[in-house]
Amino acid sequence: MDLRREEHLGEAYKAINAQQLVPALDVDGTVMVQSPAIIEWLEERYPEPRLLPADPQERARVRALAAIVGCDIHPVNNRRILEALRHRFGADTSAVNDWCGTWISAGFDAFDALARSHGRPGPFAFGEQPTLADVYLVPQIESARRFKIDLARWPRLLEIDEACGQMEAFRKAAPAVQPDAS
After folding, report:
1. The whole model's pTM is what?
2. Which CATH number fits domain 56-176: 1.20.1050.10, 1.10.260.40, 2.130.10.120, 3.30.470.30?
3. 3-45 in CATH: which number?
4. What confidence category does residue 182 fall into, taking pLDDT thresholds of 50, 70 and 90?
C-alpha cells in the first residue's frame, strides 16, 4: 500500500482490512492484521532467530520495551492521527512536528531508561541479539528523523539503531528501500 496515495482507504483494501490500516498479511488466504499479531505469528511460525527470550521474565521486559513504541509512541504519531491534526484542527508542519516530538521524546526517554536498567550488555536493546524491542524501535527512530527530532540525547538508542543497521534484515526493511519510497 502506498499510504501517500491513500490506497489503504479504498474499498478494495477495506475488504481485506475493515480498519483500513496497514499492515495486513495474507497467508494462504488467511488475512492477519495489526503489527503485534503479525509479528507474534511470525515468531511462532519461524522461531529462529528468536525475537523473544526463552525466560518468561526476560520476555516480559522485551515486550515492555516493544510496547513503549507500539502502544505509547506510534499510535499517536501515525498517519491517520497526523491527517486529523492537519485537516480537522489546522495544524501546520511545525505543529505536527512538535506533536510528534512530544510523544516520541517521552517514549524514547522511557525506552532508554528501561533498556539501560535491564543490565544486559550488548549492541541491541536487550543484549547480544536483536529482539522484538529492536524491531519496534528502529522504525520509530526513522520516524523521529522524519519529524526532525534531535536524537543526540539518546546515544544508546542511536547505538541500537546502528547495530540493527548492520544486519541485512533491518537494511531490507528500511523505509528508504521500499517500493513506494521516493
Report:
1. 0.90
2. 1.20.1050.10
3. 3.40.30.10
4. low
